[in-house]
Amino acid sequence: MTRRCHMKKFCFKSILSLGGVLVALTVASSVEAASHVVVEGDSMFSIAEQYGVDPYQLAEANTMDINGLILPGQTLEVPGIFQEMTSATSQVSTSKSSEYVVQEGDSFYGIVDTFSLDLNEFLTQNQLSIGETIHPGQILTLRQTLWTQSADTSGSSYYLPGYEYEPGINYPVGQCTWGVQKVAPWAGDWWGDAASWGANAARDGFRTGTTPEVGAIISWNDGNLGHVAYVSAVNELGQIQVLEANYHGQQWVDNFRGWFYPTDTAGEITYIYNN
């Protein structure tokens, strides 16, 4: 017998009790910040760009204001360059799985946001790609994996204190950099603030340029923190569509803008290509 649900637009075909436990042994790195001796002409922004870190996090690490005075000979801690110390860490995951029937108006982003799923895991589990279309009546697997650390909690050496992180993503949850690495896992583990991504990607050997391509990352360098997004579509008019996070403070991944001209967003544009 077929059952229909009328709660909003979401309907479960059935709930499958497929909970499981997975134990993984990983190697974690503790964080030990390097130091920088201020020279004539230095600023928080120039030092942050030199090391590929967020200038505001640099200021916070040194208990200073972003526009505070720094003097030649002064030593600053740089929370983006690390001395790695490895230690064994045990992680335990519990997975819950169910089936979902696609409803009219559904999208990948709406489904993963509603059920608090990881977009990349969701696509992999259903053997889908980001550009595919889903149709009403299609059955999708929803499997949520919850990770907890049972030993050393030092985590990745890229993690900064006071911020929330997801396993495997090295940028704070909700930031535009976090959103791009969720969609494009090949993005560098620590390319600093969004404005620095173009320069740091080129430093790491990635091809960069000014031509939009589907699958590329776009970085806007506005002289401040900048913004990054993942290019999901390009048309003959030079307009693009992107997947992004922290657009106007909306701290989840979605296509917020539809078609738009990339120059509508302030800043020098660099595209980063997955070689």
Walk me through this protein's architecture.
The chain is α+β, with helices and mostly antiparallel strands and 275 residues long. The chain has three domains: 12-26 and 88-149, Membrane-bound Lytic Murein Transglycosylase D, Chain A, CATH 3.10.350; 33-82, LysM domain (Membrane-bound Lytic Murein Transglycosylase D, Chain A), CATH 3.10.350; 176-273, endopeptidase domain like (from Nostoc punctiforme) (endopeptidase fold (from Nostoc punctiforme)). 16% of the residues lie in helices and 29% in strands. The protein has helices at residues 44-51, 55-61, 108-114, 119-125, 176-183, 197-203; strands at residues 12-14, 20-29, 33-37, 75-82, 86-101, 139-149, 207-209, 217-221, 227-234, 240-243, 268-273. Strands 7-11-8-9-10 form a five-stranded antiparallel β-sheet. It is globular, with a radius of gyration of 21 Å. The N and C termini lie far apart (51 Å).
